[in-house]
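Subgroup meeting minutes
Present: P.N., E.W., G.H.
Scribe: E.W.

1. P.N. recapped why we're keeping a running log of single-chain structure predictions: easier to compare across weeks, and new members can see raw inputs and outputs side by side.
2. G.H. added today's entry (71 aa).
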Amino acid sequence: GPYGQAGWEFVHVAIDDTSRVAYAQVSPEELGDSKAEHFIQTALRKWTYARTYSRSRQRIGELPRFLHGYS
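Output recorded in log:
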């Protein structure tokens, strides 16, 4: 809320695993993008947890196939 009042603020963070470059943005309200939220839920359901992977490498290998089918 306005200065001097209790309330919530949201910090949105993105970090690149390879370069470790980080971006953060503070917002007084939650930023939602229904398309991004739908993509994340679909990825969790149809890629991440769709089956049991014995190695992370296998899951990563399935990502291009999921992305191709999604778009």
